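User: I'm writing a short report section on ligand binding and want a predicted complex to refer to. Could you take this sequence and 2-oxoglutaric acid and write out the structure as tokens? A short remark afterwards would be nice.
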Amino acid sequence: MHVSDAHLDEVRTRGFTVVENFLEPDLLAAAWQALFQMFPSPEAYFADPERHAALVATQFSGLKLFPYPSNALNHLSVHPDLVDAARRLCATDDLHLYKIELWAKYSGAVNYDQAHHRDYSNHSLVVPRADDDFMQVTTFLLLSDVTEADGPTKVVPLDRTRDVPLTPWFVPMGAHADEEVAITGPAGSLFIYRTDVLHRGSAMTGSNRARFVLLTDFQPRGRPWTGKMAWPDRANSRLWSMALAPMTPAQRELFGFPKIGDPYWDEQTIRDVAARYPGMDMTPYQNGLSKTAA
Ligand SMILES: O=C(O)CCC(=O)C(=O)O
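Assistant: Sure. The structure tokens for the complex follow:
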């Protein structure tokens, strides 16, 4: 679903927004099936929690980094409406997709409660600017329904925290408890927020509940003081090639792939990149070469 200007204005002024029904039902259904190539389904998990103890050893044990064994998941992070929303918020066409994480949480074993914190702490070497320039856009795509009982992210609207210094990047546990908003919504909802917004993970209070979310973060390209993942470090797997090969050139550029027409491309690099990425259509790069040479 196209993200409206009203939603984006809410990110600018309130610090966050929730777009219900963002993801098309067929994409959601395919992603839901794909999740269980990597994680136990709720039924499987709760049938034998002991067997899956490693997944809930800590709050972060159910977190997996891109790429994944299915493009039904891999391609959600480059969904055209998600990228379009990030471009409009970052006010640039030259976007850098700097983090993708898939996070499964299961109730009963670990307490997912956190203190409110601001994500810039491990997404930036410096601090966010108070105006909208240099914005980093962080998102959660809900792949399961999230109610109050499913450990929703809890966010404090920006207008309540304008006078809370950026450093330290967290506040004591319980501070702002009466001002926080729970990010609930049906599967397929998109939660967008900024790295200067105080928020926290919360405890799963229901029994036999599971929460699955995909986190994708963007920033304007060319700001080396911000970011999180170095994509080449993830590129030496078959899954990486499987994820990137069917993408469009513009989608690959989000990860830093050279643009069509970039001086990097020549006959040798086109041939050898094709060998590294079976199935990648190199025609656009080849055509870009002829244009550069002309
Ligand atoms: O999982 C969540 O809802 C939020 C987690 C979070 O904010 C974090 O780990 O930094």
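A remark for your report: The beta strands are 16-19, 63-65, 95-106, 137-142, 154-155, 181-182, 190-194, 199-200, 210-220. The mean pLDDT is 96.
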